[in-house]
Amino acid sequence: MTRRTRWTFFAIFTTIGVAFAVAAWSDVSTYRTLYARGVHTEAEILRYEGVLGRRGTRWYPVYRFTTADGRSVEVRSADSASPSNRPRGTRLAVVYDPEHPDTLRTATALKGGVGVMPWFLVLISLLMWGIASLFLMPKRETSVLQNR
């Protein structure tokens, strides 16, 4: 493997590791922001938006709530839900960021904590950085016996 190829692989795996670390930080940052300065209110489920995936359709509720300053906001949840468990018109407690009202979580989800996803993303990130470090190791000398 040439020196250039090794540096290319190092750059690729490092970049993938950084991407996973950023995703983990984004999850934790959202949770911390809502926990620290989030405003509690009640929201109504207006409708569900379906997203087709490999294993079927995932349904995301669209909430409507009124901010503390009186604005009516509609936000699609980042968390999927079952329409049969929470039908349209259901009202539930939510927490939103007053600076960015489109950042919203249900109060129950926020109370549950940050969850395992950031830990999983950090683990993948560390794995990518570990693989990247292998490409920085010096090239091993071939023995005379292997060249025969």
Low-confidence stretches: none
For the largest beta-sheet, the strand count, sense and barrel status come to: 5 strands, antiparallel
> Which shape, going by the Cα principal axes?
elongated
* Total domain modules: 1
Q: Which series of helices and strands comes N to C? A: HEEEEEHH
Helix content: 25-40%
Distance between the termini: 20 Å
Strand order of the largest sheet: 3-2-1-4-5
Radius of gyration: 23 Å
Oligomer: single chain
Number of strands: 5
Pfam family, one: DUF3592
Keywords: Membrane, Transmembrane, Transmembrane helix
Transmembrane segments: 7-25, 119-138
Domain DUF3592: 41-102
Task: Characterize the structure shown.
Keywords: Membrane, Transmembrane, Transmembrane helix. The chain crosses the membrane at residues 7-25, 119-138. Residues 41-102 form the DUF3592 domain. By secondary structure, the protein is α+β, with helices and mostly antiparallel strands. The chain has one domain (3-137). It has three helices and five strands; from the N terminus they run H-E-E-E-E-E-H-H. It has helices at residues 3-37, 107-111, 117-134; strands at residues 39-53, 56-66, 72-76, 91-97, 100-106. Strands 3-2-1-4-5 form a five-stranded antiparallel sheet. Strand 2 and strand 3 form a beta hairpin. Helix 1 (3-37) packs antiparallel against helix 3. The radius of gyration is 23 Å and the shape is elongated. The two termini are 20 Å apart. The relative contact order is 0.20.
Summarize the structure.
The chain has 148 residues and is an alpha+beta fold.
